[in-house]
Amino acid sequence: MRTSRVLSGPLLALGLVLGAAAAPAAADSTPSASPSGDSSAPTEAGTSFRTATEIDQGQTATASGSAGDYLYWSFPADSGQRPTVKATVKLPESHTTQTWQIDVYDGLRRRQACQYGAQTRTAAQGTASVELACVLRTVRAWSEPWADDPLPGTYYVRLTVLGLKAADLGLPVHAELRVDSKDIGGAAAVDGSLAKPLVPGIAVTSRAEEDDSSASAVLSSIEPDDGWASGWWSDRWVWTGIGAVLAALAGIGGYTLTRGSGHPRQVPPGA
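RE: above sequence
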């Protein structure tokens, strides 16, 4: 009974910590989403990095163009997120074989490799549409200067057709693009962070704020819903707390077992 009373307090604390861990984990495992038919979703795409159309994660952006055009969009991605870019290209009824591809670039315009997904697909003659997907690596809060790791900031998506035949040049196409992210949590946490996210115009804006000037050139206005570096809290903190509680339980249990039940009955008190 005494051992049960001793252990009941730490066990209750462990239960509370596990409950706290379950809630963030459930939230982290749910990709971001937005209601269908969002009227604020963009209906056009840019033609270069500088004119890329800004979209939020969870929005389904659309654009109409011609085969042979380069279509560009940009979106924000914060540390701990694993973005998934999906694109659907609707083709005209009559066309030859076409190969479409999506490429994703980070804020430094470095092409980012896809972990998996059909980044390039070929639509046979007469195919109505082609679907593309690219799952990026998890965005890191900090990285070595020589590394090619994805970092927080603006990401660019380029959609284009490869090796287009002259007969298909200029044919009308319709594209849909959507970006969702999964929050990886403490598994992607690193010791360090960028001073500023890799967003176009961030240095100019910061300098204008320091100089208390109202004139600033902002080349990008998109950011995560909770602001940059919103993922400072991760489940790594929770599991660290769980480890501390388990260590305390082990210490209390070991002390209880080695202490014994007290003075033996058959031995006189003065012995």
